[in-house]
Write a structure and sequence with these properties.
Blueprint (H helix, E strand, L loop, with lengths): L4 E7 L2 E6 H50 L4 E7 L2 E6 L6 H31 L3 H21 L7 H14 L1 H25 L5 H30 L35 H4 L7
Parallel strand pairs: 2-3
Antiparallel strand pairs: 1-2, 3-4
The structure holds zinc ion.
Zinc ion binds next to helix 1.
């Protein structure tokens, strides 16, 4: 569904694909490092890139593991330059399940972070310096992945945790609204920072744009689901919900990034009556 992606592995029957955008960006960064720092810097860049995207794949597999156990089907995992995405055919809807699934990715990253941090340090200590150094850096990268994804806003995993925590109190729609609004605020801050930083950071601006649109889409998906439910006389209509935002309905061309594990192809779900909440 992302187009231009190449399958590199299959785990638990889930194809893991690398998107062209990732290959291009890593290629440019590597050449850039080689240009300014020589072959050594190039090797660092390549090893760290491979480690980073292995880490992202493991993070997504963490989400997938819980998803599969909760009876959902994971269609594929795609690694892109701004992160990874696992596409689910069905998502768990009980807040507790959703929270577990959202936490599984950052938990994997945290585990990898501890492994890299202590493992790398140990390797350096016994004189295996270079691999130790790369592993140590990857440890920090995984700490960052865990922390960033736990930000309490969509489309980060923390947004899903927040929604799951709020849903029993204020309903799924209102909870999604809050997490999505926080995501948009955060995206604007990231974007401004990337734009105004001394060395303008276009990567950050691109990521901010992505977060902003993904946050809005999350909310629209839930709006549609709730509207479908209302049509069926569901009891969850929230009169305080904000009015619908204009925009196309989520469809196959939409991407939800992750590190959040979720995919927009939930049309099947829209007609489902969810009685578990
Ligand atoms: Zn995640």
């Amino acid at each position: 569904m992302f187009g231009n992606a190449y399958k590199i592995a299959t785990v638990w029957g889930i194809p893991i694909k690398v998107h062209m955008s990732l290959i291009v960006v890593v290629g440019i960064l590597t050449l850039n490092a080689g240009w300014s720092g020589g072959p050594g810097a190039m090797l660092d860049r390549i090893l760290i890139a491979i480690g980073l995207f292995t880490s992202v794949a493991l993070h997504e597999l963490g989400h997938s593991f819980v998803a599969i156990r909760k009876g959902c089907k994971v269609r594929e995992i795609t690694l892109m330059f701004m992160g990874g995405a696992a596409q689910m055919e069905r998502m768990p809807r009980r807040p507790m399940d959703e929270m577990l699934m959202a936490l599984a990715g950052p938990a994997v990253s945290l585990g990898l972070g501890l492994l890299g941090f202590f493992g790398g340090r140990q390797l350096i200590r016994v004189g295996i310096s270079y691999p130790g150094f790369i592993i140590y850096i990857l440890g920090w990268i995984n700490f960052f992945l865990a922390g960033f994804n736990l930000l309490p806003s969509f489309p980060m995993d923390g947004g899903r945790v927040l929604r799951a925590a709020l849903t029993p109190k204020i309903g799924r729609l209102r909870a999604t609204f809050i997490a999505a609004r926080l995501g948009k605020i955060m995206a604007v801050l990231f974007g401004l920072y990337g734009f105004l930083a001394e060395q303008r950071n276009w990567m950050l601006v691109a990521i901010a744009f992505f977060i902003y649109t993904a946050a809005g889409r999350e909310y629209r998906v839930v709006q549609m689901e709730e509207a479908a439910k209302r049509g069926e006389g569901g009891p969850f209509w929230n009169p305080f919900a904000p009015p619908p935002e204009p925009g196309p309905p989520p469809g196959d061309a939409d991407v939800v990034i992750s590190p959040p594990p979720y995919a927009p192809n939930q049309r099947e779900e829209h007609v489902e009556v969810d009685v578990e909440r």
